[in-house]
Design a protein that fits this description.
Helix 2 crosses helix 3. The chain has one domain: Rossmann fold (3-Layer(aba) Sandwich). A 7-stranded mixed sheet has the order 6-5-4-7-8-11-10, with helices on both faces. Strands 1-2-3-9 form a 4-stranded antiparallel sheet, with no helix packed on it. The longest helix is centred in the N-terminal third of the chain and has 17 residues. The chain is α/β, with parallel strands linked by helices. The chain has 12 helices and 11 strands.
Length: 330
C-alpha cells in the first residue's frame, strides 16, 4: 500500500476504477489498467499504480494539443492586453510604493471586471530584470518563451519530454536553451535561476516532490518558484468529476488540492508565499454542457458562462474553491 505523497496518509477512496490506457510498444498493442484514488486526509487525487517513464511517454503524441504552437489556447502575444494587465497585477513584488499599489489595484480591477485571474506563471516573471535567468519546465508550445524573448529577456531556458520535438528549432533559433530527457538527471548548475516556472505541468509529474527539490537546488537563494495547474477542489469537479474538462487521466497523474500543494511545497523545502485557487467559468460551462450532451439536451452557449464569470469567480472565492490554482513560493 503506497502512502500519499503529500501527507503520508495511507487511507484512500476509489474515485474511478477499471480505467484503461491502450498503446503500442515495439509494434505490439498493449493495455495498461489503473485507478484514480483520493487521499482521505488532504484530498489529493492520484493515478495508481504509478506508471514508469517509458509508459508515461505513450500518454502523449506529437500532436498533443499543448505542443501545438499555432493553437489559440497556446498563443502568447507579448504586447497583448493580457501581458499588460499581468505586469500591473504583481507590481508590488518589486516595490510597495504608491505607484506599485495603484498598478496592482488597476490590475485587480481588470481581473474582477473580466472574471479572470492572471496566473503567477505569467505575471511574476514579467517583474524580473531583463537579464534574469528563467527556466520553463514543460514549455509545451514554447510560445511563452518566445514572447519573453520578444520582450527582451535574454537568459531563457526550457525543458520538455522527448516527444515534444516540433518546437525545438524555433526556440533554438531565438537563442533559447532547451533540453529533454529525465529532468532529475539534467545537469543544470546549482543556484543558477532567478525564477522557475511550471505552467500546467505539476499535475503531469511522476515524482512531484523530487522535482520540487531539484528546482530548489537550481534556484538562487532569493529565487522564485511559480506554478499554475488545475485544482481538484472546484465546483465544476464536484458537479461531475467525469464530465470536468480538468479530468485528463492518465496524463494528469495528480489532482491537487490547496492543502496537498502546500504540504508538497513544504516537504521540498519551499516557503509558500501564496496559493490562490480561482474559479473559471469556461470550466463550469464545459462540465455542464458535457452533462447535457449525455442527456441529449441542448448545450448552453459558452457566452452565457463568460458573462457570469465575475459572479462565479466571487462565489468560488467566498467558498474557498477554484478550478485552477496559481502558486508563488520561495
Amino acid at each position: 500500500m503506497r502512502s500519499c505523497e503529500a501527507c503520508g496518509n495511507r487511507s484512500f477512496s476509489i474515485l474511478l476504477d477499471h480505467l484503461k490506457h491502450a498503446y503500442r510498444s515495439n509494434g505490439e498493442s498493449k493495455e495498461w489498467q489503473y485507478r484514480l484514488l483520493e487521499c482521505k486526509s488532504c484530498g489529493l487525487g492520484f493515478v495508481a499504480p504509478t506508471p514508469g517513464w517509458e509508459l508515461l511517454q505513450t500518454f502523449y503524441e506529437e500532436d498533443y494539443g499543448n505542443f501545438d504552437g499555432s493553437s489559440a489556447a497556446n498563443l502568447h502575444n507579448a504586447h497583448s492586453l493580457k501581458y499588460r494587465i499581468a505586469k500591473l497585477r504583481t507590481a508590488r513584488i518589486v516595490s510597495d510604493g504608491l505607484k506599485a499599489r495603484v498598478k496592482a489595484s488597476l490590475g485587480a480591477l481588470a481581473e474582477w471586471a473580466t472574471g479572470r485571474t492572471i496566473p503567477y506563471t505569467l505575471s511574476i516573471p514579467l517583474q524580473l530584470h531583463k537579464d534574469a535567468y528563467i527556466l520553463d519546465v514543460g514549455y509545451g508550445s514554447g510560445n511563452w518563451l518566445l514572447a519573453m524573448s520578444e520582450l527582451g529577456y535574454g537568459n531563457l531556458y526550457g525543458y520538455d519530454i522527448e516527444v515534444n520535438t516540433q518546437n525545438l528549432s524555433r526556440l533554438r533559433d531565438k537563442g533559447i536553451n532547451v533540453s529533454s530527457g529525465l529532468f532529475l538527471e539534467n545537469e543544470y548548475p546549482h543556484e543558477m535561476f532567478d525564477c522557475i516556472r511550471l505552467d500546467h505541468v505539476f499535475e503531469h509529474l511522476l515524482d512531484p516532490i523530487q522535482i520540487l527539490k531539484k528546482c530548489k537546488r537550481l534556484l538562487k537563494p532569493d529565487g522564485l518558484l511559480v506554478m499554475s495547474f488545475p485544482c481538484k477542489n472546484s465546483w465544476s469537479m464536484r458537479l461531475s468529476l467525469t464530465d470536468s474538462p480538468a479530468l485528463q487521466v492518465p496524463k494528469h497523474l495528480y489532482h491537487h488540492t490547496q492543502l496537498s500543494t502546500r504540504l508538497m511545497l513544504e516537504a521540498a523545502g519551499f516557503i509558500p508565499l501564496k496559493i490562490h485557487a480561482y474559479s473559471v467559468a469556461s470550466q463550469l460551462g464545459g462540465t455542464v454542457n458535457k452533462m447535457l450532451e449525455e442527456r441529449n439536451s441542448r448545450r448552453i452557449p459558452l457566452l452565457v458562462f463568460e458573462m457570469a464569470s465575475p459572479v462565479y469567480k466571487l462565489f468560488g472565492a467566498l467558498t474557498g474553491k477554484g478550478d485552477f490554482m496559481t502558486v508563488w513560493a520561495k
